[in-house]
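Subgroup meeting minutes
Present: P.N., E.W., G.H.
Scribe: E.W.

1. P.N. recapped why we're keeping a running log of single-chain structure predictions: easier to compare across weeks, and new members can see raw inputs and outputs side by side.
2. G.H. added today's entry (107 aa).
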Amino acid sequence: RQIKPSSVYFGTMTVESGAAGVTHLAQGNINGNTANGSIRLHTGINVKASPFNSDYIYVAGTGGTDAIASGYPLEAAETLFVECDDMNKVYVFTNSSTTQNVFFHGS
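Output recorded in log:
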């Protein structure tokens, strides 16, 4: 029997450049509100690089310089599903000299 999630979250985030810009998704604009902290998930989260991005964004399971070394690259318009139980476990960043954008939804 499949258990349905009690909440669905949609969000967007501007991704800053380099290690200082490594941010977890729970700090994004979620369901129209700026969040900052823990957002529990039942199934996981889809992360999509904006189709208007000019460079890669990277998705990682850790912050800081570890994220830069181990991030999974997404080109413009690419999507990645991350199975996890909290948005604060998924980090995004870019090495671009300009900001990039990411969209996400989770439940």
